[in-house]
Amino acid sequence: MSRRVRWVIVLALCLVAGLAASRIHAQTTRATAIAAQTAANDPWQFPSDDDDKPPTLGQIVRGQAVDLALLTGFVVLALVGFFRKSETLKTITLVASVAYIGFYKSALITIVNVYGMLSWNLPTLRDGFLTYVVFGFMLASTILWGRLYCGRVCAFGALTQLMDKVVPARLRVDLPKSLERRAAYIKYGLLAAVLLVFFITRNPLAYYRYVEPFWMFSRHATALEWTGLGVLLVATVFVRNLYCRFLCPLGAFLGLVSNLTVFRIPRWSECKTCKICEKACEWGAIQGPKIIASECVRCDDCERIYADTKKCVHWLVIKKKSDLLARNSPPTVPAGM
Question: C-alpha distances in angstroms, 302 versus 26, 65, 283?
């Protein structure tokens, strides 16, 4: 592993650890200040049942051990499916994401969390422990492999990918490549606009539901919000992964982070002329010999093609060269004749 890779990994881990340590310190400081104020107001300082000591990290972990175990199991499932490039395990992961991350926990990372990180307006470790874990995994996995979170962990992205598996292909509308590439920039404009509004108003909770549909898993919304969600899902029937590809501000944020990705998908010299992977990519992330890291969600489609020695042009060329060398090489003469 190169020095650059080690430094990137260390910085990512330090960021996550720093966020957690900061919240523990803030909790302790706030509790100390409350205790001092209480002592000033109560000179007798009789023992009180209302004393609220900040919990230790161990107490927080033990209190959420079941949720942490379930989340760990889900992450292991996602990573095993990713490394094995298994379509079956990927489908199971998508279903588990919708069921567990979505409807059961409703624990999706949103643009509000990004705003909280940038403005240092973070929840206490006790109240947001699992959020810190998921957010840390999201950042670390993006730096290591790219937008893995978008492709496997995000429950809304998982839902639209499962829709893609059941919607008849004849209903799909293939956007022109030029339009598709331009539309991909919309989410970056939304990211900038949303964060600007958040920083001006200091009230992200009043607006985020109009730019992110993740609230659907909580099943609480206004009639206007449900109508907008219905329109979005109907549009997704015709344009696959519409929201994730063109409208998601969180996806735009991870797209920016993915420029730091360490372990990228390999490309061969034959990729300059072969179009098999480019046609197979449902995310518009392949442009000729180049994979656009900010658009790639590590869906495995092109990587499975790379591994297919009977389909990938790279391996076919190697086999053809090997066969030509075998036919043109002079026959060997047994020793002693």
Answer: 46, 38, 11
